[in-house]
Amino acid sequence: MSLADVRRVAGRIRWYVRELTGESTYDRYVAHARAHDPDTPVMTRRAFEHSRTDAREADPREGFRCC
């Protein structure tokens, strides 16, 4: 296995983990926000995650969080 093959496999694993954990969601949000209205300020990652968590917990279809 060559170094290029190892890098390709590592890149695919990285992509999969980012998709699985939801980390790439912020990147998609930034790309979407900048493409649709470049003058609008983009939320920081922390604000985005906080907003996303609040929305998920407020939606009863997403499940119940007891604590």
TrEMBL record:
Superkingdom field: Bacteria
Protein's organism: Streptomyces arboris
The name this protein goes by in its record: YbdD/YjiX family protein
Region (Disordered): 48-67
Alphabetized InterPro entries for the sequence: Sel_put
